[in-house]
Amino acid sequence: GGGGGGGGGGGGDRALRMLAGLIDVDKKEALRRVVYRVSRGNALVKYAEDPQGFVDPREGVEVERDCYIIMFSGRVLNDKIGRLLQTFGASRFGVPDGALQLDRRLADVGRQVEEHVQVKAEALRQKQRLVGRYTESVAETESLVLREKTVHANMNLFNSRISNRTVLAEAWIPADQIAAVEGALRRGVQRAGADTPSVLSVIHTRDTPPTYIKVNKLTAAFQGLNDAYGVPRYQELNPGIFYVVTYSFLFGVMFGDMGHGTLMLLGALFLVLFEKRFEGKRLNEIISPAYSGRYVLLLMSIFSVYCGAVYNECFGCALIPFSYWEVDCG
Fold first, then answer.
1. Over the stretch 48-60, which tens digit does the pLDDT of each residue have?
2. Are the beta carbons of 294 and 248 closer than 8 angstroms?
3. In whole angstroms, what is the distance from residue 266 CA to residue 272 CA?
4. Assessment of whether the complete model's pTM goes beyond 0.70
5. Domains plus CATH for the chain?
6. Phi, psi of 20 (to 5 degrees)
7. Would you give the DSSP letter of residue 136?
8. Quick one: which of 208, 188, 213 has its CA closest to 198?
9. What separation in angstroms does the CA of 33 have from each of 36, 41, 81, 172?
């Protein structure tokens, strides 16, 4: 809005004028000095802090701004100070001429603020009700979307150029899992109510099959360590099984301490004994790798306690203060 009009009697240039609005806290002292120089000391600048803070409607963030009011007389100063306020990025609000108009303006602004607060509160309640209806089904919907995404990702690997109603896929299957795959195909046809059964045919080829290594909860993490260095070729000896002992034992040799090993063992036992509580849940970047390698931590901590007992070391101190080895060289 524009600046306010005159506040009292007298000539046009002698009428008291007022400009009010908001300005950034770090600019208010500079504005006071510039207004003093421009008006040659004929303008009064007052500031008032806003205890509730101010939220910028364009950026939606809270900024530190104070209220200002500038009182002066003369139309020329009104134009000069108005341009200064634009330069400083200050907002301007119209100030009524008299006390009665000011009271009416304050009442109108109060009603508008109350209406906006009520509208905002009602919108928030509606949003909470809308979100509340879908909160219970978020996990189920997410699981459904992931399954559909997986199905479509696999269907995109099929070849449908032969017929629009028939798709063809070539894949490697472990020899001992062929019967299980055929059973899964039959169950899929029955559930879908399809008229044409799915056919599984074994193709003999000279291509080298990819490496398939069976793992369980204990060996999966150790196999991952082995695969980080290299995946063995088809029918080649898998060194990952040796990692279960050698990797854990070498860690115990380097980290041989009964005290620290016991603390590590307690943490690993907690993850192993309560693994079902963490299964299928989203874990943070610290718990997730520890949970994935819980059996690695378990074996490493056991060997750490064992080697710490051999080293006679607990939390960096000797468990038996004056232990020694006696060697008979006679």
1. 876 666 666 666 6
2. no
3. 10
4. no
5. 16-97 (3.30.70.120), 174-207 (no CATH), 219-318 (no CATH)
6. -140, 160
7. T
8. 188
9. 5, 10, 12, 81
